[in-house]
């Protein structure tokens, strides 16, 4: 019972970050697809699927594919910056989310380059050199881990011995619930 709020916070915020990361990543693809004259024909953003955005016609596939991870790291950093600037309570949640998005996008692109997986495969097929994908991965993952540094106690780890802000735990649970239901009920399945 002592760690109830810690469990609620971690068990809801990590999956919230995953769903929100996919949403911002796909938003990047959608923005680039629309601004380069394409039509977004399908967006898969379902909790039990890997997200995907289909653009057709896609007049600039390299811009569309890179916009996902680039916007997917810039927007979370901007959100965290706004939390800090305006001293919004729970800024460590925005900080964790920013770090999560940098690590997830960087790992997806960097590691994906070894097997031509997903966006990484499309990047290389459309002319991006593999070293650029590795560079993106190394830089974003490194910055993401740096952002996460010393956040453990806010999540009840280490010397905080399971104590977390009850408000943060229930806000996190609410955010996850809303995003899970929104993606589950509105996205086409696979």
Topology:
Elements: H1 4-35, E1 40-44, E2 52-55, H2 61-85, H3 91-112, H4 118-125, H5 130-148, H6 166-186
Antiparallel strand pairs: 1-2
Helix pairs in contact: 1-2, 1-3, 1-6, 2-3, 2-4, 3-4, 3-5
Describe the structure.
The protein is mainly alpha-helical. The chain has one domain. The protein has 6 helices and 2 strands. A hairpin with a 7-residue loop joins strand 1 (40-44) and strand 2 (52-55). Helix 2 crosses helix 4 (118-125) and helix 3 (91-112) crosses helix 4. The longest helix is centred in the first third of the chain and has 32 residues, at 4-35. It is globular and about 55 Å long.
Global geometry: globular
Mean pLDDT: 96
What is the helix tally? 6
User: How do the strands line up in the largest sheet?
Assistant: 1-2
SSE order, one letter for each helix or strand:
HEEHHHHH
Largest sheet: 2 strands, antiparallel
The structure class reads mainly alpha
Cα-to-Cα separation, first versus last residue: 39 Å
DSSP strand count? 2
Radius of gyration: 18 Å
pLDDT < 50 stretches: none
